[in-house]
Amino acid sequence: MNPNRRRAAVLALSIVAMLATLSQNAGAQSAPRLDYTIGITDAVKHLFHIKIEASNTGGRTLDISMPAWTPGWYTIRPYASNVIKLQAHVSGKRLQMKLIDKQTWRIETEGNKTLTIEYDYFADNLNVNGADLTDKHGYFLGTSLFFYVPGHTTDSPARLKFELPAGWRVATGLKKSSEPNTYLARNFENLADCPTVMGDFDEFVTTALGKPIHIVVDPKGQVAPEAGEKLKEYVSRVIEAEGKIFGGLPYDEYWVLYVTGKLRGGGALEHENSTNVMMPSMPSDPRFVIGVTAHEHFHAWNVKRIKPAGLIPYDYSKEQYTRELWFAEGFTSYYGDLSARRAGLMPVDDYLRGIASAIRRLQNTEARKWISLSDSSFITWLNYGGQGGGFTNFTVDYYGKGELVGLLLDLEIRGATSNRKSLDDVMRHLFDNYYKRARGYTNEDVEKVASEIAGRSFTEFFAKYVSGTNELDYDSALKHAGLRLVDGKIADLDAVTDAQRALRRSWLGE
After folding, report:
1. Which of 23, 62, 209, 242 has the fewest Cβ atoms within 10 angstroms?
2. How are the residues of the chain apportioned to helix, strand and coil, as percentages rounded to the nearest 5?
3. Quick one: 164 and 63 in the same domain?
């Protein structure tokens, strides 16, 4: 190349790079930032006090919204109805503000680039997607408590400071700051995703594949020392079994929060590096919490990182529809129990009995003949958590049927490849080629990946069992492991080959 042309080309590239950097910086500067302080107005009256320091607001107005739902809990909830005495001010001067929808306020900033927002929050909902405060403890999930700026849930970091009574501690998956009682979030999605327990609780620390695992039981005193050691062992073993599928764990540390008490609703919820498991009391035998823990921990990959395309990014303002929840939840249910089995925490016979029970539940559901897995995922907003009514309860449980489809797909892949490949390979492929490349998946993507790994087409399989309502062919899949369904139970075939036994051992981790 002519030297003059070379210099001109280099100069042009330099200018392009400079403009790109300036554009990126301008974008970063344009994002408003919210930093939060959480304190207590009156614990007996269940009142938190939240202060938000808003900066880089720009413009003449600033909109702030309270989420209308919690990712993983597909129900519209009136979180904003618990906001009390909301105000915005600058140096003590109140700013005008008005509601523009059921969860959004518009603040007249008067050109101020920094301002303070304050409110009390009534927290009397001890639930996976709620907030609760008493004179003994506090608990919240950020979606129920914090405002965000619409359009800026992924591009602005935040800081969360706690002002709590003496003796209270904090347990949360947020990154700890060098400042006392202060934590950092990379953006609102991260802030909203981390359940938090405050007060006096028991904490047990173990490791799994070299990563710290924090196990919190609130309130304290429910776990005897011997049971605490067993709890650490069981949680570590099941996490390691799941991590081995992917060649490691996708986080720096993990928090398992067992929260007990007088619940508005039980259950558990998944997060990037934590889970909140809610129940009336902690069982004396920790083995009884391993199933739900295994399920929620597997979500650290499936749905929190391997995400349906329709959930990227989260839209906290309204229902967010996706047809892939049968995979996000159903396959997680499949791997939850399978991981407990592979970790040696569930006997093979118990595992097979569990599959037989899942089959019976599905076969006793008339809706299986009418509603597909894809459609049941899409309409979950009508009745998630049993909050629907009338005809909306006539649907297929995509957890249960999705688990069975996961079982069938796993065994069919193993059968097609003489056990060289499995559903584990599908999950690894989706993690490496979708999550790590910031892509969401669709039903069609799962079908394509499964077909490529198995070396056979799964088009008919997905047409029948995911988008269709055909009866599941259990025996066709089970035979690859030398098994069959007889009188509602899973039993050996009359003649089981060495290859079938080897496949079964590989599948179940024997």
Report:
1. 23
2. 40, 25, 35
3. yes
pLDDT tens per residue, range 429-481: 999 999 999 999 999 999 999 999 999 999 999 999 999 999 999 999 999 99
Distance CA(92)–CA(196), nearest Å, equals: 31
Tell me, yes or no, whether 13 lies in a domain. Answer: no
pTM confidence score? 0.92
**394 band by pLDDT with thresholds 50, 70 and 90:** confident
Specify the pLDDT at position 453. Answer: 98
Structure confidence by residue, pLDDT tens digits, 136-146: 999 999 999 99
Are 275 and 296 within 8 A, CB to CB? yes
State phi, psi for 254 to the nearest 5 degrees.
-135, 145
The mean pLDDT value for 36-42 works out to: 98
Reduced to 3 states (helix: H, G, I; strand: E, B; else coil), residue 444 is helix
Residue at 8 is within a domain: no
Regarding whether 109 and 211 lie in a shared domain, the answer is no
CB 49 within 8 A of CB 41: yes
Share of the chain above pLDDT 70, in %: 92
Torsion sign across C-alpha atoms 318, 324, 329, 330:
positive
Q: CA distances (Å), 284 to each of 126, 200, 217, 287, 429, in order? A: 22, 20, 12, 9, 39
The reported pLDDT for the residue numbered 58 is 86
Same domain, residue pair 129 and 82? yes
Indicate the SS3 state at residue 491.
strand
Q: What is the DSSP letter of 265?
A: S
Structural domain boundaries enclosing 53: 32-196
